[in-house]
Amino acid sequence: MGFNKKLPVWVIILLDLVLTAAVVLSFAYFHHVKDWGKTEGPKKDYNSPSAAGSTIEEHTHSWTEKEVKTPTCLTEGYVLYVCACGEEQKNILPALGHSSYHLVNAKEATEEENGYTGDKYCDICKKLVEYGEVIPAKKYNGLHLVNYSEPTCLEEGYSGDWVNEQGTVVIQGTVLLPLSDSHKFVLERTEVPTCTSEGYSLYRCSACGFEKKDDIQERLPHENDGNGYCRYCRKCLLDTSGDFGSLYPEKFIQDDSVVILKDDAQIRAYALQNRLTLENAEKGTFISFYRSHDVYMSVRQVDEVMNGYLARCYVYDIYVRNIENFYTVAGKATSMENLMEKAETDLGCTVVGAVNGDYWSNSNHCRAAVRNGILLREPSKVDSDLCVLYRDGTMRTYRSSDFDWAAVDAAGPWQVWDFGPALLDENGDPYSSFEPRYYDKNLITNTHPRMAVGYHQPGHYTLLSVDGRKKDENGNYIYGCNIPSLAQYMKELGCTVAYNLDGGDSAQAYANGDPIRQAEGRDTQRVISDILCVGEVKKGS
């Protein structure tokens, strides 16, 4: 039979029906499968050869204790847990440390025989923790111990030699063997790096106490607050080559040399030779002089009659290249020397001249305090006039009624003193009336030793110490002055802003290491809480 023969009509119709049925059934099948996929139900993972087509459910660990290692005095322990899925988890138990002790070989000293404090052993681990010390026989009274060194885990120590007043060894020491064969280091603390110190992890040996630093991190850079100071440590970031220096080029030495003079004739000769102007040189005697790259200070002594009474004035004429050279030291101390030493040791500063401040530690009376750009006390209430030295070198006084702390804070205070009263008004003239501190009604009119700070322009300041309550070298009684006389004198010195600081027996003053003004009749100076200094500051980092 050939393929050219035509098919009957009924065959063609039958084939069409079969084809149509197949298409319908296929569509229905695949449409049904697609709908299954839309229903919510367990998801399947067809990629896992071990569980093909199986349902995946979220696993929750069920921990079972597998192993326990008990910690000792010197070593860590742990608890090991295991889950049915095979995963393990270890919880560390820290070393217990030595907690209780007993002494071995302890013996009291007799008249003739040496005693022994006893070796210290741990009650728990029974290990030697600390060697004892020899107790000299009573016949050896007056001996003292030398050359003692404690043993560590790895290094020998020495019990020390007992020697007499002549230095002769009476009882020779012995070698102390190492306490262990290795250090048992435990993390004690972690210090994060700052702009003033590096970061590190401190480890201490639980057996011998030996310390080591690890994970050292470099110190962070200072971050400028926009006003030339680090926003974290308040270090001055100003260029020490000159801030106010361009205003007074003749006052500062251009190299690193320093000139210190303490004789009037020498000071005047030096000034003449170096074409320096000594302010009010015609009046008084110069007693101290300092000149360097960053600081200029002259101090003269002048006897004045103020309000009908004799007063001895010590006038500090000061120029600083940077505001950081006009700094304060806060901290209640038994003497002014203590705070000057604090400046040297804690701040790395060299004090050229110093006077007392405002007694800021008395929070009942001094409500505001900023020292070297650091806020010590934010005022919630102000009862007296205040004085603010800003970071740009300007100075301003405020009556308590017009003091706006938010505005002062925003402007960047370098120092804020709270004592008063303010001495000069906005025109640089003495106030006609003064606001006394509320607890001291005799402050204004009575005659006392006084202390004041004055301002000329940025970088140029005056400190004034007025002596009183004592006799001079000729037997004449020196009284001091009252507030109106003090204000008038500060104006005569050329100040445009002036402010009264703590006076009386607190009115202490130093220059180039010498006491300029001290309280009369005191073996030691009165306790003071802060000083105002002019001096050299530590440069660099």
Strand content: 25-35%
> For the terminal residues, how far apart are their CA atoms?
110 Å
How confident is the prediction overall: mean pLDDT?
82
Largest sheet: 7 strands, antiparallel
The total number of structural domains is 4
- Across the major sheet, the strand order is 17-18-19-20-29-28-32
Structural class: mainly beta
Question: Helix proportion of residues, in percent?
Answer: 10-25%
- Shape assignment: flat
Q: Tally the helices.
A: 5
In angstroms, what is the radius of gyration? 42 Å
Low-confidence stretches: 30-56
Number of strands: 35
What are its keywords?
7-stranded antiparallel sheet, 541 residues, mainly beta, flat
Molecular structure report:
The protein is mainly beta. Helices cover 13% and strands 33% of the residues. It has helices at 9-38, 264-273, 336-346, 405-411, 483-492, and strands at 63-69, 77-83, 88-93, 101-104, 115-116, 119-122, 128-130, 134-135, 144-146, 157-158, 161-163, 169-171, 175-176, 185-191, 199-205, 211-217, 259-261, 285-291, 295-306, 309-320, 326-333, 350-356, 369-371, 374-377, 386-390, 395-398, 413-418, 450-457, 460-467, 470-471, 477-478, 497-501, 509-511, 514-517, 528-536. It is flat, with a radius of gyration of 42 Å. The model is unreliable at 30-56 (pLDDT under 50).
Summarize the structure.
The chain is mainly β and about 550 residues long. It has helices at about 10-40, 265-275, 335-345, 405-410, 485-490; strands spanning about 65-70, 75-85, 90-95, 100-105, 115, 120, 130, 135, 145, 155-160, 160-165, 170, 175, 185-190, 200-205, 210-215, 260, 285-290, 295-305, 310-320, 325-335, 350-355, 370, 375, 385-390, 395-400, 415-420, 450-455, 460-465, 470, 475-480, 495-500, 510, 515, 530-535.
